[in-house]
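INTERNAL AUDIT FORM
Audit reference: QA-55
Scope: verify that the stored structure record matches its stored sequence.
Auditor: D.O.
Record contents follow.
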Amino acid sequence: MAAPAFLYKLYERRLMRELGATALPRHIGVMLDGNRRWAKAQGLSAQEGHSAGYEKMREIIIDTIDRGVPYVSAYIFSTENWHRSGPEIKHLMDLVVQMLTRDLHIFVEHGIRLRVAGTRVRLSRRVKKAIDEAEAATKDLTHGTAILSFNYGGHQEIIDAVNTLRKTLSAHKKVTAQIFEQFLYTPDVPPCDLIVRTSGEQRLSNFMLWRSAYSELIFVKKSWPDMTKRDITAILNEYAKRSRRFGG
């Protein structure tokens, strides 16, 4: 028999106290994989799978930040996703605009700053306007930061950083890692301490290539829409057990 919900809540709070702030990752990158497979298993359309995935993303981001993780990056649309069908792409764009406009108040009420990391190439004026206005509206919120990796590719981020760096720095100036990372999409955001991917796939798929050098990796068999807050507790518990030596 499953434990009553109130007993689980007590366990969850005790676990968070035991882990403490020092055992929590500063930055979690989440690869929201399996929406379409989940939808197919339910007899639903791909669009319905993405809608379910969006609702889950909103819930998990808020819950993770409420636990004390200051930065959460969600990989929601890659530069390779443009190869998908027109109706599916349109639905994904509509969901992003929904998050940045109609549902923005939810993040504001939780004190969460929204930022978007990715190239603006191929984005419509409507999408770019929604990004600009949401980032401006939440820039002073301090409870935590949700970064949408949207129209994002790790290779593209590095290429864009190189091109901007070449225009900015003298050709004679020595480039260090510390200088280079100032030209990434969100230069003030720390590296990913932890990257989580759902649906059983075990690869980075062009996500956070610069910031994943020493990331802990956790792969979950569940499809993204099936994730729960209990899964987040288990993930944070597993992360706290890891020994991070950074090559030392």
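Auditor finding: record pair retrieved intact. The longest helix spans residues 46-66.
Action required: none
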